[in-house]
Amino acid sequence: MNAAEAVIKCLEKHGVEYIFGYSGGAAIPFFDALVTTNTDIELILVRHEQGATHMADGYARATGKPGVVLVTSGPGATNTITGLITAQMDSVPMIVITGQTISPMLGKDAFQEADVFGISLPVVKHSYLVRSHEDITRTVNEAFYVATSGRPGPVVIDVPKDISSTEGVFDLDAAMDLPGYTVPGHGDKDKIKQIAKAFKKARKPLLLVGHGCVLSSAEEEVRELAEKLNVPVVTTLLGKGAISEKHDLSLGMLGMHGTAYANFAVKNCDLVCSIGSRWDDRIVGKLDEFCADAVRIHIDIDPSEYGKMITPDYWCVGDARLILEELILQVEECDSATWVEEVKQWRQDYPLKYDKIQGGLTMQEVLAELDKQSDSEAIVATDVGQHQMWAAQFCKSTKGKNWLSSGGAGTMGFGFPAAIGAQFGRPDDLVVSVSGDGGFQMTLFELSTAAIHKLPVKILVLNNSYLGMVRQWQELFFDERLSGVDMVGNPDFVKLAESYGVKAFRMSSSDDVAKVWEEALAYNDGPCLIEAVCNKTDNVYPMIPAGANYDKMLLEAPSEKLDKPTGST
Amino acid sequence: MKDFQTHTISVYIRNNPGALMRMCQIFSRRGYNIDSLVVSPAMDGRFSRVSISAKGASDSLKQINLQLEKLVDVVHCIEHTDTEAIVREMVLVKVAADATKRGEILQITKHFGGKTVDFTDNSLVIECSGASSKLDAMIALLGNYEIVEMVRSGQMLMARGGNPT
């Protein structure tokens, strides 16, 4: 057995079903090992390494199991960087194995050599450059443990070709050696007690639930806690589904483009308890004024999140689910009935809304109809931008691991390959990729991958021929000087799909929406693309300008000129 | 820039390739300038001892320590104040000196507890160790003569008493 074969055997041992990959010279031993080991692991040959990383990422987010990527050295490896930072920012478990030039040529500018270890350092949870075949099985075992435990994240394993080719005797169960790595689990009981006590005094408490709750499968516990306390729940973009958005206590997403009622709740609460969220800048707006008068509680598995943005009054390090289990035992119903009524009134008075356009089409109605016809059960994968925010608003998530979106990195081109990965992981579930015309063109070549495997993924392209979110900012904050946002030269998306042998539909007015969705959702012989030709000038509201206080929330287009935002991008 | 202070940190880290790069990245990303960095093998050769002095805003230092702790290779990371740790540095100074200046220079060296480690017709190399401020004072005095070259080791530290470094 050679080291590459040992790696494949190790991957089998860790329950890997798919490898998303792209071959190349330095990775040939691994691709060869996929044949010689007769493995059951299926290689999904993609069309670009970025696509492979997003597929692995989508697979991981939708299943909770780590995604595995295999690429070659040099450009093959550097093409994974965008996928790595996407996974790193959103704490997604992923293993990326990269081929490397032979050891004696390292650092000598060999063909397709890149310092992958160095280039990837800031975008990984951990990484390895394997120096000896004797280290390889231990490295793989460590990589899986590090990627999936604690706060998950991507791990890179760079393997020189001479090492992967080396014959030897390999212990697939090689023991890990990670003396500097600790994984927080149960929270400190005294700290949990303090948190429970704080709820007792609160009259307007609020739960702020993030991706950590989805990652630790704490959906049941979040619901139980909210119900036992009688406390409304707001979710972050990635926390969608941590509590069903159809639950009576759920207020949907908070923050920059969150629902008005979620944001009113944030502004007026007297206690905010963040669970598995990192007080991201899209949420806090103006940092020193965010819930400044409320008691702030932070529950997170990553100690470096405490005080990074907000210094909480109470905090507890550990796994969200384990801490909530304990917290549920400690708390009693809050004196919150008046507050809950107040919040529900806001929900009635300030619902999400949009205007239909005579003879035209809005993105909101396309997404609302998808939500209706799928009964809010679809796995929805998005890119970043206007379509993402509308999808977050109008596609309700009823369970965890059904909402796959590039939150932290905001990666265009993420949604479609992520949807492919999710469909591999959950073949029996409805998977819908939601992209704009801009983002879709960044990874559309994976139409081949979807077509080859006859995946029934629905590919929605919301086409407004603009990079809509940037246009929105230019209209609001840059005196309507549009620059670099006009997607003139877009292809005919229907013909494009058909050229890949992919079934395609088009909708361009309100009258088409229900019928086209019915047809598309009924089509299961392979992927299908739905191009929705949408109004070009719609903007997303509510909106809190970046870096602004929650007072500055716009419920509709402003009538006067706005100041330039002070917050990030 | 006004509240930028020098902080002294010790890190016990796995002696893995790239471990140092991961650490330095955390400092540079947050605008911290590393003044000195001393790395050497620990008693257990699988680990290294790292002493860092760095300048930056105090409030972001806590973040940096937490980020360092988060690295898989880092076993622990501790910030030390002057009172609870012994902080030492060594310097080698080459001073141009003929017979007429030698006496004065040797007197300065003796005063600071240094010694001469190289002696030629027209130069001396002085070795001295101690607190950085002491070395600064000695160097300032030697500056009255012609300093040809100078190499400082950077600060290394050890916690006092029962505290771990």
Polypeptide structure, described:
The complex is a heterodimer of chains A (569) and B (165). Chain A is α/β, with parallel strands linked by helices and 569 residues long. Chain A folds into three domains: 162 residues, Rossmann fold, CATH 3.40.50; 161 residues, TPP-binding domain (Rossmann fold); 175 residues, Thiamin diphosphate (ThDP)-binding fold, Pyr/PP domains (Rossmann fold, 3-Layer(aba) Sandwich). Chain A is 37% helix and 15% strand. Chain A has 23 helices and 18 strands. A six-stranded parallel sheet of chain A has the order 2-1-3-4-6-5, sandwiched between helices. A six-stranded parallel sheet of chain A has the order 9-8-7-10-11-12, with helices on both faces. A six-stranded parallel sheet of chain A has the order 14-13-15-16-18-17, sandwiched between helices. In chain A, helix 13 links the parallel strand 10 and strand 11. The longest helix of chain A has 15 residues. The mean pLDDT of chain A is 97. By secondary structure, chain B is of the alpha+beta class. Chain B has two domains: 76 residues, Alpha-Beta Plaits (2-Layer Sandwich), CATH 3.30.70.260; 72 residues, Alpha-Beta Plaits (2-Layer Sandwich). Chain B is 29% helix and 44% strand. In chain B, strands 5, 6, 7, 8 and 9 form a five-stranded antiparallel sheet that branches. In chain B, a hairpin with a 5-residue loop joins strand 2 and strand 3. Chain B is elongated and about 55 Å long. The two termini of chain B are 29 Å apart.
